[in-house]
Backbone:
């Protein structure tokens, strides 16, 4: 039997440190895992603090203030008297009917930027120019937009002059109670659809282009591609645009209303936000305005959740 080989040892120079294995202590690993768990909360804390201080706390104060009185009853608890007064006020009821009109017109406000974003995504001729032109109204002030359309929609303005060239009579766009609200909403859609267009284009960036190419190879028409490929692929984007557009229509039309109609004619263009300003700034009834604000918040919450539920159900059915 051959003798066993003797292992060769490498001589160690004097002063050379001996390598040691790093042993992770349980305390260090536990500390790191705890830090990893707390990291998301630390990152979210500043935003949550800002929302709590500047959003939720004022909202709670406003709700509490809506149960107090105005005038001689200032600061006194009045229960639901302000809410009862709201639903007996014809102006507030007119503003709530206009909210229903906005809900009915919401699909138009979402469909227009959605179709334009689709055409840009499909690279129609001149799509780069269209991208800039479509977004341009979003950078204009509502006051400037209202002043421009006051001139365009005047009874003797260019819009009626154009109608006259095709044999149609003049339309009192801003003076007819049955038409004025549609005119203001149309201007608002024109002025704000650029932001929704940007959101849709961002959603298209996440869409799998191979699905559209496959549908085209199979001979699918553009309407079928939109319905069966693009809409399901952008379901989350559509939900976001629907909710934000509805919120914008309920809370961002004050400038146009103030400049174009002033709530008229006959209160036909009142919206809750304009009613709130009128009661607070013109009538000196802040408690009633707080009650109207609370009702508006409740309407926005119900409408937004309802829209999300409907869109999710439609997405599952597709």
Residues:
């Amino acid at each position: 039997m051959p003798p066993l080989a003797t292992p060769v040892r490498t001589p160690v120079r004097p002063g050379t440190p001996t390598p040691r294995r790093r042993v992770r202590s349980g305390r260090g690993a536990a500390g790191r895992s705890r830090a990893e768990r707390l990291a998301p909360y630390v990152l979210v804390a500043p935003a949550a603090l800002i929302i709590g201080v500047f959003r939720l706390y004022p909202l709670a104060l406003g709700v509490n203030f809506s149960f107090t009185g105005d005038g001689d009853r200032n600061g006194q608890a009045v229960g639901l008297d302000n809410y009862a007064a709201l639903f007996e006020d014809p102006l507030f009821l007119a503003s709530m009917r206009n909210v229903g009109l906005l809900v009915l017109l919401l699909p138009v406000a979402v469909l227009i930027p959605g179709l334009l974003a689709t055409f840009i995504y499909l690279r129609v001729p001149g799509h780069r120019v269209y991208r800039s032109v479509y977004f341009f109204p979003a950078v204009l002030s509502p006051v400037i937009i209202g002043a421009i359309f006051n001139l365009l929609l005047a009874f003797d303005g260019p819009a009626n002059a154009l109608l006259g060239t095709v044999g149609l009579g003049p339309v009192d766009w801003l003076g007819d109670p049955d038409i004025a609200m549609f005119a203001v909403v149309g201007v608002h859609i024109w002025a704000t659809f650029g932001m929704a267009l940007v959101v849709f284009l961002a959603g298209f960036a996440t869409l799998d282009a191979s699905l559209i190419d496959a549908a085209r190879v199979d001979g699918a028409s553009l309407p079928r591609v939109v319905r069966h490929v693009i809409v399901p692929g952008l379901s989350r984007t559509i939900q976001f645009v629907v909710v934000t557009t509805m919120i914008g229509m309920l809370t961002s039309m004050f400038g146009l209303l103030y400049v174009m109609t002033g709530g008229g004619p006959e209160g036909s263009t009142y919206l809750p936000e304009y009613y709130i300003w009128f009661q607070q700034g013109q009538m000196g009834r802040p408690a009633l305005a707080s009650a109207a604000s609370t009702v508006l918040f409740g309407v926005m919450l119900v409408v937004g959740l309802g829209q999300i539920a409907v869109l999710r159900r439609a997405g599952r059915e597709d």
